[in-house]
Amino acid sequence: MDRKYLAEFRFYDALNDFLSPSKRQQTTLYRFNGHPGIKDPIEAMGVPHTEVELIIVNSRPVGFDYQLQSDDRVAVFPAFRRLNVESLLALREPILHPRFVLDVNLGKLAKRLRLLGFDALYRNDYHDAEVAKIAADQQRIVLTRDRRLLFAKQISHGYWVRAVDVQSQIEEVVRHFDLYQAIRPFERCLVCNGRLVPVDKAEVLQNLEPKTRLYYEVFYRCGDCRRVYWEGSHMADMRRRFAAFLSPSN
Description:
Blueprint: E1 5-11, E2 28-32, H1 39-44, E3 54-57, E4 60-62, E5 73-77, E6 100-102, H2 107-115, E7 120-121, H3 128-138, E8 141-144, E9 158-160, H4 166-176, E10 196-199, H5 201-204, H6 210-215, E11 219-222, E12 228-230, H7 233-241, H8 243-246
Parallel strand pairs: 1-5, 6-7, 6-8, 8-9
Antiparallel strand pairs: 1-2, 3-4, 3-5, 10-11, 11-12
């Protein structure tokens, strides 16, 4: 059946990453029948709903439940760090204290997030359905390298990580979610995501190597898996590596 209606769509900024090169940075005509919810054509064009922050139709903001009409002019925007859209129609409830769940491709990123103090769930045997359920049940933000995962209806908050190497990934995520002020380094276990708590040296003495017993006095233990941490030379190296995050210039 021929589709008898037309609408114009224009995607802005980072949303163009999801479009084919021939459709980027320009108005695209969308043919349709009936009056679909606007989320459907947006995703049909390849843009996950989780990446969309603002939809303007004929100069007014609309929600995902808006039913597309013939001759509509639609502008679709991602989250902008320096654009305040609080006074406009919100597409979803905000998550005030970011917590994450990461897919199986982002194990190294999970450790970097934990290193900076963020609650980041990860297992190397998570299935996509598990990630989506955890995100919905616990109000977590999904981070993924698989853009298809973000089309899951259960997921309300999610982000497709563009970078490939882990250092660029952590810089991208911190910048995208503007996490600078929320960084609390060295408060979480890198292995299990549990919180670290101070512990007397005498309580963990039997777990320490001889040189660690000799040279270090301050120790922390994970409240969940009981792993022991101390401020060795590796901590100074981590502080140098993450100096830009701990004292951001922007």
